Amino acid sequence: MNSCKLVQLVATFTINNMNKIFDILGYLIPGIALFLALSGCEQQPYRMGERLYKTHCANCHMDGGEGLGELIPPLKGSDYLASHRDQLACMVRYGLKDTIVVNGKTYAEQMVANDKLNDIQIANVVNYVLQNWGNDVKPVTFEEVEAGLGKCGK
Q1: What pLDDT, on the 0 to 100 scale, is given for residue 152?
Q2: What's the burial of 25, exposed, middle or buried (CB within 10 Å: 0-12/13-18/19+)?
Q3: How far apart are CA 67 and CA 27, in angstroms?
Q4: Judging by beta carbons within 10 Å of its beta carbon (0-12, 13-18, 19+), is residue 49 exposed, middle or buried?
């Protein structure tokens, strides 16, 4: 069960039993807020994707997604994103050890794994990349990310 579904169950339980929990409400609400903050369930997935990108991806792919010369492929205007949309979550989670061709250019530098990111965070960072810097690739759904991660090799 993913963390957002768990939060929904807790919220439903809370609503159905409100009269019983008024005494502990002072403890419950801060706990749920903390859980939401730590679980990656944000109301603004684009902002979360941007923050995650800056933390986990921008060091190599640069803030503007332009990549790093001959070493790191660009994400900005990348033809690879649309044609490999179903593989992007796997690349974020497990990295890339193979060569990659982006906009007709071959890149051989390995991409590091981001195996600490949960599925929701991966969906948000992938969607940030797909919709930023002039990229106009259909966003991935959480279900697509889950299914894709279930199929990728490590």
Answers
A1: 85
A2: exposed
A3: 46
A4: buried
Apex 54 CA angle, 78 and 50, nearest 5: 75
pLDDT for residue 68:
95
Where do we find the tokens 């492929």? 73
Give the integer Cα–Cα distance in Å for 97 and 80.
16
First to last CA, the chain: 22
Neighbouring-strand partners of residue 111: 96
Q: What is the pLDDT of residues 7-17, one digit of tens each?
A: 555 555 555 56
SS3 74: coil
Largest CA distance in the chain: 63
For 31-42, write each residue's pLDDT tens digit. Answer: 554 455 555 554
- CA dist 61 and 64 (Å) reads 8
Q: Please tell me which residue, 17 or 114, carries the higher pLDDT value.
A: 114
Question: For the whole model, what pTM was predicted?
Answer: 0.71
> Which residue type sits at 135?
N
Angle at the Cα of 80 from the Cα atoms of 79 and 82, rounded to 5 degrees: 75
